[in-house]
Design a protein that fits this description.
Distance between the termini: 12 Å
Oligomer: single chain
Shape: globular
Number of strands: 19
CATH topology of one domain: FAD/NAD(P)-binding domain
Helix content: 25-40%
Strand content: 15-25%
C-alpha cells in the first residue's frame, strides 16, 4: 500500500509509549503509518527531561516493570537502541531511624529480612506466595483483548478459562482471589503483620497512583493486579538514558518500517464519513486522511472532544462525562552536586527504589488529606537516584534525584500558585530526614504538580493511569463496557492509551493489543 500526499493507511494520535507501540505494530503489518504528537518530542510522561544543561531526568515515570518480553523481541527494540542501566532494581522501605527494610527477592535477602522483622518474616513469605499465586490466575488476561462484556457466550468462555486456571493451580487460590476482590489492603495488612513500616510500604505499592486510601474496598485486589503487571514484564528495570529511551527505540522501530512521526501536530478533530473513520484535522487546518485512526490519548478527550458526543449513544457518553480523571501524583526532579546519602542505607542499595511510607496510618492520613485538597506535612514518596547506575544523566560526581510524591490533589485548597513553594519545602524537608543535607546539595530542580503534568505532557487531569483502577474499571469495563475492547462506534476508530485495558504504567500493552485488534479488521 502506498502513501499518496496526505493519505495514509493508519494515523496514530499521540506519541506516548502506547501510541508508539501501536504504530510500530501496525507498521509491522505492512501499513503506512503516521504518528501525530502535539509536543515536540516522543514519550509523553515517559520521556527524559533536561532539568538544566547537563542534567537529564526521567520526566515523570522513572522505572519500568511491565513491558512484556514479546513486545521487546517482536519490535527488536534492543536493535533500535533500548538498553538497561539496572535490572531487578530492589525496593527498600526507608525508616526514620535508619533501620530500613529491604523487601527480599532471594534467600540471602530474606535472611536479612527475618533478622530485621522476625515476627513478620513467615507472614511476609506467605503473603508474597499468595499474592503471586492470585496474580498468576489473572496475568494471562492482561496480555489479551478483554472479552465482550455484552456477549454471554464470550463471558462463559472467559469464566471457564479462569476456573480452569484456578483448578490447575488449586481451588484454594481461586477461592482466595474471590475473597480478595472486595477487601481493603489496610484490613489485610493489619490482620497479617505487626511492623508499621512494612505495612506502610505494602499499602503504598497497592494504592500507587490512585486516590483511594488503604482502607477503601477493593484495594487488596489492586496489589494483585500490580503483581500481574509485573509478571508480564521482566522485573523492575531502569532504562539507560532515562525512560525516554524507550520512546526513542519505539520511534526508531516505526521509522525502520517506513512509518513517519510528526511533532507539534495537534489533532483537533477526527474525521468521519458514513460512520467510518476517514482521518484527522490538525490545529493549523491540515487534513490528513486514513481509514484507520488509533488514539493514544485519554478516551474522554478522544470520544467527547475529537469525535463528538453526538456520535455516541447516550449512556456511554454519560459514563465518559462522569469519568474525568484527576491525578494524585506529583513529580520532582532534582540536580544535586553530590550523591545523596541515606542514613543507614548500605552503598549497594543507594540506587534502589526507595519508599517513604512510614506506617499504614500515615499512608491513610495522606489519602484523606489529599481528598480534602491538602497535603500532609511529611508526604508519602518514591525516590530513585538514576544517575548511580547511569552516569550519562549528570556530570561526573554529581547526581539526579527523581521523586514521585503520592496523594497530591489536582485542586489544592488555596490554589497551586499560593501553595507550590510550601509543598516543595515539605517534600525537601521530608527527604532531608532520611538523607541529611539534601537541600544544600541541590543545584536546580523541576516540580510537576498534577496540573503541570496535564499541561506539559498532555495527560488529562494529570492522571498517570488515565482512569480509575477500580475493579469496575478493569478488563472489558475499561474505560467503560461500551469501549472495553479498544473499538468505538465508528468503524476504523480505536483507543490505545492507558485509559484502555490493562491500564497505566509503562507497559506498551494497550497500544500493542489495540493494534492487534485493529489488524483483525484489515
Amino acid at each position: 500500500m502506498l502513501r499518496v500526499g496526505n493519505t495514509f493507511d493508519a494515523i496514530v494520535i499521540g506519541a506516548g509509549h502506547n501510541g508508539l507501540a501501536a504504530a510500530a505494530r501496525l507498521a509491522q503489518q505492512g501499513r503506512k503509518v503516521l504518528v501525530l504528537e502535539a509536543l515536540e518530542m516522543p514519550g509523553g510522561a515517559a520521556a527524559t527531561s533536561q532539568i538544566v544543561p547537563g542534567y537529564a531526568a526521567p520526566a515523570v515515570a522513572h522505572l519500568v516493570e511491565g513491558v512484556p518480553r514479546r513486545i521487546e523481541r517482536g519490535l527488536k527494540l534492543a536493535r533500535h537502541g533500548l538498553r538497561y542501566a539496572a535490572r531487578d532494581v530492589p525496593t527498600v522501605a526507608l525508616d526514620r531511624d535508619g533501620n530500613h527494610v529491604l523487601l527480599p527477592n532471594n534467600r540471602k535477602q530474606f535472611a536479612a529480612f527475618r533478622s530485621r522483622l522476625p515476627k513478620d518474616a513467615d507472614a511476609y513469605r506467605d503473603y508474597v506466595a499468595l499474592l503471586r499465586a492470585q496474580a498468576a490466575l489473572i496475568e494471562p488476561l492482561l496480555g489479551d483483548t478483554p472479552p465482550d462484556m455484552n456477549d454471554p457466550a464470550a463471558m462463559r468462555r472467559f469464566f471457564r478459562r479462569l476456573v480452569w486456571r484456578g483448578q490447575f493451580s488449586g481451588r484454594a487460590t481461586l477461592k482466595s482471589l474471590m475473597q480478595t476482590l472486595p477487601e481493603s489492603i489496610g484490613d489485610r495488612l493489619d490482620a497479617e503483620f505487626t511492623s508499621p513500616l512494612l505495612k506502610g510500604a505494602l499499602a503504598f505499592d497497592a494504592i500507587q497512583g490512585g486516590a483511594e486510601g488503604p482502607y477503601a474496598p477493593g484495594t487488596a485486589f489492586r496489589a494483585v493486579w500490580r503483581e500481574a503487571i509485573r509478571m508480564q514484564g521482566s522485573g523492575l528495570r531502569q532504562i539507560s538514558g532515562g525512560t525516554g529511551a524507550l520512546a526513542d527505540a519505539l520511534a526508531a522501530a516505526i521509522a525502520s518500517q517506513g512509518g513517519e512521526l510528526r511533532f507539534g501536530a495537534r489533532v483537533v478533530r477526527i474525521l468521519v464519513e458514513g460512520n467510518e473513520a476517514a482521518g484527522v484535522e490538525l490545529a493549523d487546518g491540515t487534513v490528513l486522511r486514513a481509514p484507520l485512526v488509533i488514539s493514544g490519548i485519554n478516551p474522554r478527550v478522544t470520544l467527547l472532544g475529537l469525535l463528538g458526543a453526538d456520535r455516541l449513544e447516550t449512556q456511554p457518553a454519560m459514563e465518559l462525562r462522569h469519568a474525568k480523571p484527576k491525578g494524585t501524583l506529583a513529580k520532582l526532579n532534582l540536580a544535586l552536586e553530590t550523591a545523596p546519602h541515606f542514613t543507614g542505607l548500605a552503598p549497594e542499595f543507594q540506587g534502589a527504589r526507595l519508599l517513604i511510607a512510614p506506617s499504614l496510618r500515615e499512608v491513610d492520613e495522606a489519602a484523606m488529606v489529599c481528598r480534602e485538597g491538602g497535603f500532609v506535612s511529611e508526604p508519602m514518596m518514591e525516590l530513585h537516584v538514576p544517575s548511580i547506575a547511569d552516569r550519562s544523566l549528570a556530570p561526573e560526581g554529581q547526581h539526579i534525584l527523581s521523586v514521585i510524591v503520592h496523594h497530591v490533589p489536582f485542586d489544592v485548597d488555596g490554589g497551586w500558585e499560593a501553595r507550590r513553594e510550601i509543598f516543595v519545602q515539605k517534600v525537601v524537608r521530608t527527604i532531608d530526614t532520611y538523607a541529611p543535607g539534601i537541600a544544600d546539595a541541590m543545584i536546580a530542580g523541576e516540580i510537576l504538580t498534577p496540573p503541570d503534568i496535564e499541561r506539559k505532557y498532555g495527560l488529562a487531569g494529570g492522571d498517570w493511569h488515565q482512569g480509575d483502577l477500580r475493579l469496575d474499571r478493569l478488563l472489558g469495563f475499561r474505560p467503560s463496557p461500551a469501549f472495553g475492547r479498544y473499538e468505538t462506534p465508528v468503524k476504523g476508530l480505536y483507543l490505545c492509551g492507558a485509559g484502555s485495558h490493562p491500564g497505566g504504567g509503562v507497559t506498551c500493552l494497550p497500544g500493542w493489543l489495540a493494534a492487534e485488534k485493529a489488524g483483525e479488521g484489515k
